[in-house]
Amino acid sequence: MVLVATSEAAMALVFRKLPTHSDTEQGTMRWFGEDNDKYVECRVTVTALTRRLGAEGTEDAKLAKAFAENREKIEAAAKSKYAAGKVKTQRDSPEQTRTIIYLDVADL
Fold this sequence. Notes:
The structure is a single chain. With 108 residues, the chain is α+β, with helices and mostly antiparallel strands. It has one domain: 2-Layer Sandwich (Double Stranded RNA Binding Domain), CATH 3.30.160.140. Helices cover 31% and strands 31% of the residues. It has helices at 6-9, 46-51, 60-69, 71-83; strands at 21-23, 28-35, 38-45, 88-93, 96-103. A 5-stranded mixed beta sheet has the order 1-2-3-5-4. The radius of gyration is 15 Å and the shape is globular.
């Protein structure tokens, strides 16, 4: 019988190619992944998109294009951070918390 540690079993982040959303207040593009029945909020900074991934400006359409062209690389970086436990947890209410992965220039 092989035992799998709970932390390893919980590290199954998957993406369903849902659309991204620009969050100008946070300076990020946001999208979601899933780990079993838990949603994981993922964010990549505008700085990373412009400096590392070829966005030719900070307009939503240009950021979305750079994200789409580099989606596999961005999602691989998010999975790596998630597997390493490099996430933030935000409590929205006493009953609800969010797991958030932030990707910046150094992550890409």
